[in-house]
Amino acid sequence: MQPGPHGYPQRQRGIAAITALLVVALATILAADLAWQLHLDMRRTESALLRSQARQFALGAEIMAADALRKDYESDQQDDEFCDYPGERWATELTLPFEGGTVRGRLTSLQGRFHLNNLAATGTRDNAVFEQFERLLEALGLDPGLAPKVLDWIDPDQSEVLGGAEDGIYTLRRPPYRTANTWFTTTTELLAIDGMLDPEAPDDKVFRLLERYVSALPPGEKINVNTAEDAVLISLSQDGSTSSAETLKANRPYCSLLTGAGDSAFMDDAEGLVDPGFANEYLDVVTYFFQLKVLVTLGTAQLTMYSLLQRDSNGVVTTSLRFFDTK
To answer: What's the CA gap between 168 and 176, in Å, rounded?
Structure first.
C-alpha cells in the first residue's frame, strides 16, 4: 500500500507501537504486583509460623516453671520448713538459647504485693487493710486520697465513702462508664479510677509507680513478708516510717511468722512495729500465687507471655490465667 498524501499508514504503525508499549507496561505492572503480593503472603506465612513456634516455646517455659515450683514444695517438705523467698531456685531468672532465638523466663511472688481486693474482701470496707493502703500510697509519694476511690470501685454499693467516687463521677465522662462494684480481675482496671490519670496532662506515671506494688489476687490472700518490697513493708508498720523496712527485712528469710512459732520468726523483729493481730490475719511466709513472665525471641518475631500460676497446699501447680503480647 502506498502512503497517501497525509501519511496514514505511517500513523497507523505509530499507533500500533504505542499500543504494544502500553500492553507491555500493563503486563509489567501486573507482574510486579503479583510478585509483591506473593512476597507479602510469604512474609505473613513466615510470621505466623514464627509466632506459633514462639508460643510453643513459651508454653514449654511455663511447664518448666511449674516443675520448679513443685520441686521447691518437695524441698520444703524434706526440710520441714515451708517458706518462700527470693533466694530460692524458683526466683532465678533463666535464659535458654536455642538455634535461631532465646527464651527468657522469670517467676515473681505476687503475694509480696498489696492485695487490692482485700480492701473489701467481704463486701464491706476492711479498716485495717484500708489504712495499710493509705500508708503504701504515702510511702510511694502518692496521694492517699486515691484509697477511698479505689475502695468505691470495688464495693458493691453506690454510696460514696468520704473522698470516694461512684457512678455519678464516671457517667459524666466521655465516654461514660460505671464502677465495677466487684473485685479487681487485673491491676490495669486502676487506670479507670478517678485521680489515677491527670486530666490536664494525661499520662500513666501514677499507675506505673503503683502497679508493681499491688495485685488483683482473690480476696483473702495474705502478704508474704519474705518477698515484700520496701514500700509494702513500710505499709505494714503502724507508724509508716521508712526505717521500719530495714528492721522488717533484717533477718529474712523467715520460715515462721509469729513469735514462739519457731526460729527466725517475723514477729521477733516486727514487735512494736506490726500489730500481732494484723500479722496473724493478713501476713504469711509462703506464696501460693506466682507470676511468670516469658520473653521468646525467634527470628524476627518476639513474644511475651504472662502466666498466673497457683500452687496449692499440696504442691499442685495450675495455670489460673495466661495472656500473650506479640510484636
So the answer is: 10
| pLDDT tens digits, one per residue of 208-253 | 999 999 999 999 999 999 999 999 999 999 888 888 999 999 899 9
pLDDT mean across residues, the chain = 90
Cβ neighbors of 270 (< 8 A, separation 6 or more) are 236, 247, 248, 279
The reported pLDDT for the residue numbered 1 is: 47
d(CA 183, CA 165): 16
Task: Go through 128-155 and write b for each residue having 16 or more CB atoms within 10 A of its CB, e for each that does not.
Answer: ebbbbbbbbbbbbebeeebbbbbbbbbb
In this structure, the dihedral spanned by the alpha carbons of residues 149, 152, 158 and 162, taken in order and rounded to 10 degrees, is: -60
Q: First CA to last CA across the chain, in angstroms?
A: 69
Q: What is the mean pLDDT of residues 284-303?
A: 94
Q: Give the count of domains, the chain.
A: 1
In this structure, what CATH number is given to the domain that contains residue 127?
1.10.40.60
**In this structure, what C-alpha cell is assigned to residue 107?**
517467676
CB 172 within 8 A of CB 179: no
Domain membership of residue 74 (yes or no) is no
- Please name the residue that has the C-alpha cell 511468722: 257
**Cβ(156)–Cβ(167) below 8 Å:** no
Mean pLDDT score, 97-110: 94
**Pure H helices in the chain:** 8-79, 127-139, 146-154, 167-170, 205-211, 230-236, 244-248, 266-270, 276-282
